[in-house]
Specification:
Blueprint: H1 9-19, E1 38-42, E2 45-48, E3 53-56, H2 59-62, H3 71-83, H4 96-108, E4 113-119, H5 122-139, E5 147-151, H6 160-165, H7 169-172, E6 182-185, H8 190-193, H9 199-217, E7 222-227, H10 243-254, E8 257-261, H11 275-279, E9 285-288, E10 300-305, H12 306-315, H13 329-344, H14 347-353, H15 355-364, E11 372-378, E12 381-386, H16 406-417, E13 419-420, E14 422-424, E15 428-431, H17 439-460
Parallel strand pairs: 3-13, 5-6, 5-7, 7-8, 8-9
Antiparallel strand pairs: 1-2, 2-3, 4-10, 9-10, 11-12, 12-15, 14-15
Helix pairs in contact: 3-13, 4-13, 9-10, 15-17, 16-17
This protein binds pyridoxal-5'-phosphate.
Pyridoxal-5'-phosphate binds next to helix 5.
């Protein structure tokens, strides 16, 4: 089968079903689905093998920040591949793309960051966090400070440490996770726990769960707290404004390291280079991936704050950790070109001051649809809940019976209407579109989503 020739969709689908085990796909007979074949991307659109154009409201998998079809990234990759396709960065060896990218990341990151550790993905980045945090405390003479506190419903990747830091029971059940020394507290979901409280009160309450957990475990045992500024795959859970500053205060009080997983929220998604800036916090470590290269080439890593970097350098000794593809030159040149595009097109400020507020206004107005219980957006992230009945407050909305799988039905209607969204259990629908989206394209996306909602409502009647 030559992929450049005419595309035989059925042939591809049959071969895919026969040989390809997909990530996060249900292999049971009941759910065995024929895969949709995506063959082309341009700007904010992708095309399937039947020639249907789909507006990509998920930027691939939360990653295509500059959109599809950027020839200049391809050209940079091609030039680097012919010059030096690969060399490693182990044992004090380096190459120009890794040097240049590390300096660029330091330039755009908050001031406490002057060092970068490269990995191949967000999961590898979070594995690096676990090892780095424990290594740091051992070097400080406190090897007993090992425990990392994370949150229920968080997503931090699929490696053993990533899935352990994550808070999904469905992942923990497979493979005896979490690993020892990783514990979880509740997520700051106002919808879940805020009944009868203001968002500000609830934010402080949710942050206090961290302090309770630290006191329960003993501060001398706790190494770090990790959280996504906005929980992404868990459902675009936007914490109340009081949450993160209080988390920062608590970490400071007990000397606990603060880690922000910015795999989703980094590189402009919240209208700042990093979501930590949006929430006014100063983490010690930031995990990054996805938007760093807009997914053109796999790349991830960790921004290492001065508190940790200086301590490691002062104490000396080897950090016995690294990946063959740490600082891969192809990933680095793709990231450099991607960041240049974000800068030249002013995408961060555009999301902060113009298209972000406009997306918020248009997306949140979807709450007027009879099927939508509530809708919220921040930057270029949004989430809404499909409900059977709307109540007097968001806490009184009546959900659908889970067995009806209304979210999946709605997602299918969205595809039918020409827009890709994500749905998660609980009939919650998410968006995370490319940052290049114009106001006119936001209007187009909202119109397509509305058509999908209308079709879902019609089918439910
Ligand atoms: N952290 C967060 C917040 C993520 O959303 C993801 C992936 O979706 C990861 C980590 C894992 O990244 P990767 O899939 O590149 O390993």
């Amino acid at each position: 089968m030559n992929m450049n020739d005419h595309i035989d969709t059925q042939c591809l689908q049959a071969s895919d079903a026969a040989h390809h085990l997909h990530p996060f796909a249900d292999y049971s007979q009941k759910h065995q689905q024929i895969s949709r074949v995506i063959v082309k991307g341009e700007d904010i659109y992708v095309w399937d093998s039947e020639g249907r154009r789909l507006l990509d409201g998920m930027a691939g998998l939360w990653c295509m920040n500059v959109g599809y079809g950027r020839k200049r990234i391809a050209d940079a990759v091609h030039a680097q591949m012919t010059r030096l396709a690969y060399y490693n960065t182990f044992f004090h060896t380096t190459h120009p793309p890794a040097v240049e990218l590390a300096a660029k990341l330091v330039e755009i990151s908050p001031p406490q960051f002057n060092h970068v550790f490269f990995a191949g993905s967000g999961s590898e980045g979070n594995d690096t966090v676990v090892r780095l945090v424990r290594h740091y405390w051992a070097k400080q003479g406190h090897p007993e400070r090992k425990i990392i506190i994370s949150r229920h419903n968080a997503y931090h990747g699929s490696t053993m440490a990533g899935a352990s830091l994550g808070g999904w029971p469905s992942m923990h059940q497979q493979g005896d996770l979490p690993l020892a020394g990783i514990v979880h507290i509740g997520q700051p979901s106002y919808l879940e726990g805020g009944r009868g409280k203001t968002p500000e009160q609830f934010g402080l309450e949710a942050a206090s769960w961290l302090e309770h957990k630290i006191l329960e475990l003993g501060a001398d045992k706790v190494a770090a707290f990790i959280g996504e500024p906005v929980q992404g795959a868990g459902g675009v859970i936007v914490p109340p404004p009081t949450y993160w500053p209080e988390i920062q205060r608590i970490c400071g009080k007990y000397g606990v390291l603060l880690v922000a997983d910015e795999v989703v929220t980094g590189f402009g998604r919240l209208g700042h280079w990093f979501g930590s800036t949006y929430f006014g916090i100063q983490p010690d470590l930031i995990t990054f991936a996805k938007g760093v290269s807009s997914g053109y080439v796999p790349l991830g890593g960790v921004l290492v704050g001065d508190r940790i970097a200086h301590a490691l350098m002062a104490k000396g000794g080897e950090f016995n950790h690294g990946f063959t593809y740490s600082g891969h030159p192809i990933g680095c040149v793709a990231a450099l070109e991607n960041i240049r595009i974000i800068e030249e097109e002013n995408l961060v400020a555009q999301v902060r001051d113009d298209t972000g507020p406009y997306l918020k206004q248009r997306f949140e107005a979807l709450a007027q649809h009879p099927l939508v219980g509530d809708a919220g957006a921040v930057g270029f992230l949004g989430g809404l809940n499909l409900v059977r009945h709307k109540g007097a407050t968001v806490h009184d909305n009546v959900p659908f019976d889970r067995a009806l799988e209304v979210g999946m039905l709605c997602r299918a209607h969205m595809f039918g209407s020409g827009v890709i969204v994500r749905t998660i259990p609980g009939d919650r629908l998410l968006i995370s579109p490319p940052l290049t989206m114009t106001r006119a394209q936001i209007d187009e996306m909202i119109a397509l989503i509305t058509t999908g909602l209308d079709k879902t409502l019609a089918e439910l009647k």
